[in-house]
Amino acid sequence: MKRIQTKRSPLQRQRRRNAGLAMMEYVILGTVIAAAVLVAAIFFGDAIGSQFRVMTHAVAAQPAEAVAQTEATRGIADDADAAAKEHRDGIVNYE
Questions:
Q1: pTM value?
Q2: Given CA atoms 62, 63, 65, 69 in this order, what sign does their dihedral have?
Q3: Number of domains in the chain
Q4: Which of 2, 14, 66, 77 is least enclosed, having the fewest CB within 10 Å?
Q5: Taking Cα atoms as reference points, which of 29, 31, 30, 69 lies closest to residue 47?
């Protein structure tokens, strides 16, 4: 038995094309979000790791280690803050 093909109307073709475009927009959006998360993890990785170490010591009832790790985390955060300010000043004073 032969299958009869009907010609699609312009509206049906347009609707099908739009569905493909919407899916592509979601793919692009997902890629941009993934890239942003990756960049954030690279920039803040040390600070995030330090915070997890503090929480681990606190949960394990090791307050002395938690306090020491908190101080180390503050040092990392201060270093990152200084680097960010230096970078910002470099951008602002760019001529």
A1: 0.44
A2: positive
A3: 1
A4: 2
A5: 69
